[in-house]
Amino acid sequence: MTDPKTVANMIDHTLLKPESTPEDVAELIAEAAKLGTYSVCVSPSQLPVETPEGVHVATVVGFPSGAVKAEIKAAEAARAVEDGAEEVDMVINIAFALTGRFDELESEIRTVREAIPGIVLKVILETAVLDDAAVVAACRAAEAAGADFVKTSTGFHPAGGASVHAVKLMADTVGGRLGVKASGGIRTGADALAMIEAGATRLGLSSSAKVLADIENEAK
């Protein structure tokens, strides 16, 4: 059984609802500090934010559709870093992966990578939309382009969020060379532990308190 403290240190405590206010973000940060999560993940318009020592700051670019030009994602990422982001989660152009245009996908990711050297870059694949072959090829494109993580989902696509199958496939493909972030629809301790068992090294959660409480209760 993975203990709550270990799981907490794998969590990007996330608030990406478009109606979120600065007050909501302040509550998120306070909760992250209380829970001991690795980071908070907020929309780029909410940056900069002040966080306690040990709580990192992540943001998203091209979110949630991914359907903007690579240079726009790169500029958005660079501005986010100027505003204090330590990690950037970018949404791919999903159509590239759906239509087998993996050279273009790699180029897009590399464009963002080059705009934010030294910053942790996570690549959101929206795996519920893709078949297994496309997930594998997209993971390889992300690795070739210099990404640090591959990530399952935005949590906003109607096709769904993270699945154990997708996480295992991604983990097997990147073989520990990249991190694997499971995100989207993970609302219980059992969900989170299943993703970790499948190979997730980071979790994107909006229900962090409930997930950690579940794990603590299960451990008793």
TrEMBL record:
Domain of life (superkingdom): Bacteria
Q: Which reaction does it catalyse?
A: 2-deoxy-D-ribose 5-phosphate = D-glyceraldehyde 3-phosphate + acetaldehyde
Q: Which GO terms describe its molecular function?
A: deoxyribose-phosphate aldolase activity
Q: Where in the cell is it found?
A: Cytoplasm
- Active-site positions, per UniProt? D89 (proton donor/acceptor), K151 (schiff-base intermediate with acetaldehyde), K181 (proton donor/acceptor)
Supply the SUPFAM superfamilies for this chain.
Answer: Aldolase (SSF51569)
Pathway noted in the entry: Carbohydrate degradation; 2-deoxy-D-ribose 1-phosphate degradation; D-glyceraldehyde 3-phosphate and acetaldehyde from 2-deoxy-alpha-D-ribose 1-phosphate: step 2/2
Q: What is its main location?
A: cytoplasm
This protein's GO CC annotations: cytoplasm
Check the record and name the Pfam families matching this protein: DeoC (PF01791)
Name the UniProt key words of this record, in alphabetical order.
Answer: Cytoplasm, Lyase, Schiff base
Record's keyword annotation contains Protein transport: no
EC code: 4.1.2.4
Q: Tell me which Gene Ontology terms the entry assigns under biological process.
A: 2-deoxyribose 1-phosphate catabolic process; carbohydrate catabolic process; deoxyribonucleotide catabolic process
Q: Which family does it belong to?
A: Belongs to the DeoC/FbaB aldolase family. DeoC type 1 subfamily.
Which HAMAP family does the protein's record reference?
DeoC_type1
The role this protein plays is: Catalyzes a reversible aldol reaction between acetaldehyde and D-glyceraldehyde 3-phosphate to generate 2-deoxy-D-ribose 5-phosphate.
Name this protein carries in UniProt? Deoxyribose-phosphate aldolase
Species of origin reads: Corynebacterium frankenforstense DSM 45800
